[in-house]
Amino acid sequence: MVACSSASEGHLNVKAFREWHRQANILTEVLWNDVRRGLPPKKKKTDVPEGRLLILEGAKVEKRHQEVLKCGPKYCLEPRLSIVDKLALTRDIARSVPEKEKERCVVECVDVVAKVESLKGHVAF
């Protein structure tokens, strides 16, 4: 904010600036209130109904986990598998490939798990 005054005494400049500043604030409020009347009304937030949760095949899910799952995908995180679970998953994957490629599939999967874990700073084996 810049203000100029022709008064020679400093205290008159300060007094004039304060008056100008007060008038600028009043004018700003008047203009803002006028603009605000033309704005669309603020939408009221509606209560989000609790989500439904379908548990398949009689799986057991703890009550606290069910409450989080009912909140929706925003609150759900992917599960983190341990190294042992990742290695066990390689056998499951190998079951779905042709017999000739099973050994190669397991070796490659184990190699990937080892590399990822070593990048994290963990000892893979």
TrEMBL record:
Taxonomic superkingdom: Eukaryota
Name listed for the protein in its UniProt record: Uncharacterized protein
Highest classification ranks of the organism: Eukaryota, Metazoa, Ecdysozoa, Arthropoda, Chelicerata
